[in-house]
Amino acid sequence: MRFSTPNVRKKSQKMALVALVLLVALVPAFAKQKVIVLKGHTHWLFGAEFSADGKRIITASWDRTARVWNAQNGQCLAILKGQVQSAQFSADGKRIVTAGDDNMARVWDASSYQCLTVFKGHTDSVDAQFSPDGKRIATGSCDHTARVWDATSGQCLSILKGHNKCVWAPQFSADGKRIVTYGDNTPQVWDASSGKCLAVLKGHEEFVNTAQFSADGKRIVTASSDKTARVWNAISGQCLMVLRGHEETGVGAEFSADGKRVVTCSRDKTARVWDVGP
């Protein structure tokens, strides 16, 4: 069929009109977008996260500081110093933990921004996480150990030994009863009270770059430089599933809230979603 020129012109005009209407409709939505730029750090950032109530943001930077910001207007509320490489609010938003390459972690009052406790004992750079109830802190270090501390007194409760590489970002289970550590190619699960090793997750051929519990604490997902992710039984340490498909190092992995899926990301410039069952 051959279209006449007037028909083509009419069709083009109609399409242009529809596009214009859509553009007019979308402009208010774009106009309502508000972007707040948090300026002040003098070097690149390691990370940023909201407080639980969403009213504040904390950032950690290579400039050796953490900064607390008003999430509504971007105002800098405090600068926390001390060789900072990681920073996190407690779940109740009342305290902040920072850690860095001065081999120490620090807890700060999140209202006055005064340093409350300094955690000393590691002999190399440190990362730190609060337990879900905020009563303990887990630290991982390039001294190849992790430690569990009383978050108020700063007393070291246990030293978790068994890795032969840097230990990064130890993760508590949601109930706070267990900790998973990683850094070499064998993540390990620990009793958070006694410091006893409960399971060693064997199977990865290269460094593990992340390990996360499922919400119910029954499984762990890991991602490795061997280009795979794995799902494990968090009690027995048995490998339940190997997720293959990424073409480069796996750098992140996390369960969905219901535990039915896992999202992974890689240096191959892709993220992938996997069905891992109930």
Q: Percent helix among the residues?
A: 10-25%
- Please state the average pLDDT score: 89
Contiguous low-pLDDT stretches (5 residues minimum) are: 1-27
Largest sheet: 4 strands, antiparallel
Rough outline: globular
Task: Give the count of helical stretches.
Answer: 1
Strand order of the largest sheet: 1-2-3-4
State the distance separating the first and last CA atoms.
55 Å
Total beta-strand segments = 23
Please trace the helix and strand order, writing H or E for each element: HEEEEEEEEEEEEEEEEEEEEEEE
Rg estimate, integer Å: 24 Å
The portion of residues forming beta strands comes to over 45%
Structure classification: mainly beta
What does this protein look like?
This protein has one helix at about 5-30, and strands at about 45-50, 55-60, 65-70, 75-80, 85-90, 95-100, 105-110, 115-120, 125-130, 135-140, 145-150, 155-160, 170, 180, 190, 195-200, 210-215, 220-225, 230-235, 240-245, 250-255, 260-265, 270-275. The protein is mainly beta and about 280 residues long. The strands form six sheets. It has a four-stranded antiparallel β-sheet with strand order 1-2-3-4, with no helix packed on it. The chain has a four-stranded antiparallel β-sheet with strand order 5-6-7-8, with no helix packed on it. Strands 9-10-11-12 form a four-stranded antiparallel β-sheet, with no helix packed on it. The model is unreliable at about 1-25 (pLDDT under 50). The chain has one helix and 23 strands.
